[in-house]
Amino acid sequence: MTIETLIAVIPVLPLAGFLFAVLVGPRLDRMPSHGHAEHEAGHADDHGSHSGHGGDGAHGDAGAEGELRPVPSEEEQRATSPHAGHADDLANSNGADGVIPDDMNDGRGQPGHVVEGAPRPRYRSWIVPTGLVAVAWLFSMIVFGNVIFGGHTYHVSVYEWIGSGTFRIQVAFLVDGLTAMLLLVVSTVGLLVHVYSIGYMDGDRGFWRFFAYLNLFMFSMLLLVMGDNFLLLYVGWEAVGLCSYALIGFWYKKPSAAGAAKKAFVVNRVGDFGFGLGIMMIWTLLGTLNFSDVFARITTLSPTAITVISLLLFAGAVGKSAQFPLHVWLPDAMEGPTPVSALIHAATMVNAGVYMVARANPIFSASPTTMWVVASIGVFTAIFAAAIALTQNDIKKVLAYSTVSQLAYMFFALGIGAWVAAIFHLVSHGFFKGLLFMGSGSVIHGANGEQDMRYMGGLRERMPWTYRTMVIGSLALAGIPLFAGFFSKDEILGEAFSRGYYLFWAVGITVAFMTAFYTFRMVFLTFHGSWRGPAEAWHHVHESVPTMVAPLIVLAVPTALAGLVLGIPPEAGAIHRWLAPVFRGAEEAGAGILPGSLAGAGHTFDLLGLGGLLLLIGAGVAVAGIWLAYRWYVLDPEAPARFVAGFPLGLGPGIYAASVNKYYVDDLYNLVWARGGVLLGNALWWFDAKVIDGAVNGAGWLAERVGGALRRSQTGRVENYGLGIAAGLVVVLVAYLVIQR
Amino acid sequence: MIGAGLLVVTLRNIIHSAIAMMVCFGSLAGMYALLGAPIVAAAQVLIYLGAISVLILFAIMLTQAGDANLPAPFHPQVWVAALAAVAIVGLTGWAAIATDWKAAATTVAIVVSALAKSLFTDYALPFEILSLLLLVAIIGAIYLARRPEEDERAN
Amino acid sequence: MGLQSYLIVSAMLFGIGAFGFMARRNAILMLISIELMLNSVNLSLVAFNAYLPSPVNAGAVFALLVMAVAAAEATVGLALVIAIIRTRQTAEVDEYADLKE
């Protein structure tokens, strides 16, 4: 079993898991085979299993088999789910009007509808998909070790997919240091999310569907990071978009979820359009889509062409990684189940944009303009998203905007030429954000479906493990020394300063402060103080099941330690050695070092000089943010309100409102694109109905008129015809005589 | 002859027009003779004056068409028709004048025997077909001009 | 007279015949006009034969043939006119407009 075989097999395993889940999964999630109980427990069963027809797998066997009945109906789910109310497609019924009967709709999930003693369905379709993903994780670790510590790079060609004249595309995998780092993140977080989902999605009648989509997503993501040509990358890119659509809209009966899924897909598509154009340009100008060939030949193109290509590719990254202005889909994507948010929108899919830019570093570094655009958009998005996260009340929305902001940091790093720092941040962010999201899911389950932090509080007594792991993750996110986030974030900021991007550095420091602040605002509001929710709900607050807590603990380890392992010494740590071959030649090129900066070529980091000072500033800013959050949300809860009221020039409430409303970007898009689209449609309809149909109808009208006029020449009288003959004769004579002349 | 022709088309009474037509035919016969083709002149007199004119007069009488003095003998389109006719004459005449015919200075008379010979040798086929045509015309005319009752009685 | 004079005369006669055909209402008069036109053609044929002689006297022969055909045509035409007049009781061609749109 060679490494090459392992590499080729890794993506196939989740694909097999997907097929298994789709074909066999529904059969595994069945009601138990009690003869009596099935009739008495669900008296509306027949009604239920007919109404639930759409989601059932084995429809035909319902009556005939008698032993096992199909996937549970909505009634049965509501009666038996331990997470009734927030783990079914009727969850958090804002926008589910008409789906839940009014007398059962209390607006916040239905904890009171569990029927004691109702026979519980067995949810067993998780076994094979999770097992396959675990095997894939194992293989990925073997490959990782081989590539990183052995220093090898692998090209594994599986088969020729397209062979059409000169257009030849192989299904082939390239595994170098960059791919290996991504494999680490993707497979680890992916496996942990699978385990987490066993507990989180328990009780949901779409259990098998969830695992199917998760596996399909893993397959697509692995294809994306392992492919060795742009087309395979694009295939994986689109496929993860599709899976994202499926998973965000997992609870498809919720109109808000369905809308969010559409929004994600459409906004992604805008970026993908640019990405596709970029790939087509590469093909047209270079005749190949292979990474190695393209990168070798890219410098033969004109600078304009390179800039255009790289900007188009970056457009795709903007869409996929939710940067301004295509960031709007990520917060709405929180409609999906929390494991989805953890996997896709924190740890893997949104990293695809960063990966793609890093992979295409020869192209980007050849175009200083694009590099500057990347860095600028990164910096702007960072502060923009952080400014929104400050005021959000939904725990998942805070994390969503935090993700956008941290991704922006990564693009910022890429744009200034600090490639390795960006990847380092990608890895550490994948771990701690995945941890934070899964932790938030645990909080939501524990608080009985509540997601609004204003109604939480004091949870650390009842949910100790969740509390501890979330604190570790938050410390990492805030950038406290010795945790992973500190090393990666400060490396980015240090590179920015020493390469001469002083303004960007200042913005980055501000964002670090804001990040620490809103992160710990979240922690303090959720876990400290006293419970602010409904009194009767406090009795149900509980720690989550082990399958949900275990991944949290597992992730806390790299969150705490990855920085130490990868990032010491700063700017020359282990990760730099591992990734050096990938970015060879790009470190100093492009917009990397501004002229007149403090560094020159070959600057070094000195702990006791400038570098150390920057580290200190970063750490100080983070601590300041935490302290401010502590003052405002633990010691003195009235302080935020006073601050807003006392803001100079009376702008406080206005700024606060703008921040809560996401700076009205969504409203703007609604106005311009949605309403504008409708207007355009109406205008085009008018054009079609009046102008085009008018022309067609007009042709008919004209034919009628002309026919009417010509009809009058048919008099039926022979003398008129004789005159016509004579006239024709005259014409012929004239023509003949003229021609003879 | 031209005058006779004009009379033909402008007189109100058809019978007067028919007489004028006969005068026209007669003068044409004279012209044929002047052109050195007495055989054609003879044929003109025989056929046109002797047969066709009579035929037309018979037709006029049989249909009582000549009794009425038509109040409006001309169509509304008479002026346009005149214009067209003048145009035809003008163009054809101009074509005739403008062409160099390389004609002989004086007429050459026809030798009847030569004409007869060519009629029965070079143009024998048209001659025979012509006889067939006349037969067909006779039969057709008889059939067409029947009285309707005779038709039924014939069946 | 020269050849061209005869041709001009023939053209004038043709024009008169055409005018008569187009301008008069009576059906029989229209047939008479047709005869005039045919005669004009005969004249020009014989004129050509006189001034540009041919070994087979083509012009004169053709003129004779035309005469015979004219006779046949006049016969049939008049038979038709008689039949129509008998049916419609009128000789005015204005009334024969059943094929009108």
What strand line-up does the widest sheet of chain A have? 1-2
Task: Classify the secondary structure makeup of chain B into a structural class.
Answer: mainly alpha
Count of DSSP H/I helices of chain B: 7
| Assembly form of the protein | heterotrimer
β-strand number of chain B:
0
The beta-strand count of chain A equals 2
Portion of residues in beta strands of chain B equals under 5%
What gyration radius of chain B follows from the Cα positions, in whole Å?
A: 21 Å
Radius of gyration of chain A: 31 Å
| Distance between the amino and carboxyl termini of chain B | 49 Å
Spans where pLDDT lies below 50 across 5 or more residues of chain A: 34-67, 87-100, 104-112
Helix-strand topology string of chain B: HHHHHHH
Distance between the termini of chain A: 96 Å
The largest sheet of chain B is: none
Topology (elements, then pairings):
The complex is a heterotrimer of chains A (741), B (155) and C (101).
Chain A: H1 3-9, H2 12-23, H3 25-28, H4 37-41, H5 45-51, H6 61-65, H7 74-80, H8 127-150, E1 154-164, E2 167-175, H9 177-200, H10 207-226, H11 230-248, H12 255-286, H13 291-297, H14 303-320, H15 329-332, H16 338-347, H17 351-359, H18 361-365, H19 368-389, H20 395-416, H21 419-446, H22 464-478, H23 484-498, H24 502-527, H25 546-567, H26 574-579, H27 610-635, H28 639-645, H29 652-660, H30 665-711, H31 718-740
Antiparallel strand pairs in A: 1-2
Chain B: H1 2-10, H2 14-34, H3 38-62, H4 78-98, H5 112-120, H6 124-144, H7 148-154
Helix pairs in contact in B: 1-2, 2-3
Chain C: H1 3-23, H2 27-51, H3 58-88
Question: What report would you give on this structure?
Answer:
The complex is a heterotrimer of chains A (741), B (155) and C (101). By secondary structure, chain A is mainly alpha-helical. Chain A has helices at residues 3-9, 12-23, 25-28, 37-41, 45-51, 61-65, 74-80, 127-150, 177-200, 207-226, 230-248, 255-286, 291-297, 303-320, 329-332, 338-347, 351-359, 361-365, 368-389, 395-416, 419-446, 464-478, 484-498, 502-527, 546-567, 574-579, 610-635, 639-645, 652-660, 665-711, 718-740; strands spanning 154-164, 167-175. Chain A has a two-stranded antiparallel sheet with strand order 1-2. Chain A starts with a helix and ends with a helix. Residues 34-67, 87-100 and 104-112 of chain A have low confidence and may be disordered. With 155 residues, chain B is mainly alpha-helical. Chain B contains 7 helices and no strands. The longest helix of chain B is centred in the first third of the chain and has 25 residues, at 38-62. Chain B is extended. Chain C has helices at 3-23, 27-51, 58-88. Chain C contains 3 helices and no strands. The termini of chain C are far apart. In chain C, helix 2 (27-51) runs antiparallel to helix 3. Chains B and C meet through helix 1, helix 2, helix 3, helix 4 and helix 5 of B and helix 1, helix 2 and helix 3 of C.
